[in-house]
Amino acid sequence: MTNKRLSDGTVHKISTDLEKLLTSASKARTAWEDITPLARNEWICWIESAKKLETRESRIERTVSGLKNGKRRPCCWAGCIHR
Predict the structure, then answer these.
(1) What sections of the chain are H helices per DSSP?
(2) Backbone dihedral region of 58: left (phi > 0), alpha (psi from -120 to 50 degrees) or beta?
């Protein structure tokens, strides 16, 4: 596996905790690099918009799981307001 840093979104930068989990799951890492920068931005913003640490951690886990299962964007979320 390469040590190359994962790609960011269009506006948001990938956080260390998300990058660490994505790097440890090769299928999720591959999916992350396959989605568009705008889609990556949506995942990152969804995670960053959490108000509680527990929610943030849950969203990171759901991101990795979702990407492994073929999801390309977070579900049931209005989208990033920063684009």
Answers:
(1) 16-24, 26-34, 37-48, 53-68
(2) alpha
The model carries a pTM of 0.91
Structure tokens at 39: 């889609």
State the helix-helix crossing angle for 37-48 and 53-68, rounded to 10 degrees: 150
| Other beta carbons within 10 Å of 64 | 21
Per-residue pLDDT of the chain in tens (83 residues, 90 and over written 9) = 456 889 999 999 999 999 999 999 999 999 999 999 999 999 999 999 999 999 999 999 999 999 999 999 998 778 888 87
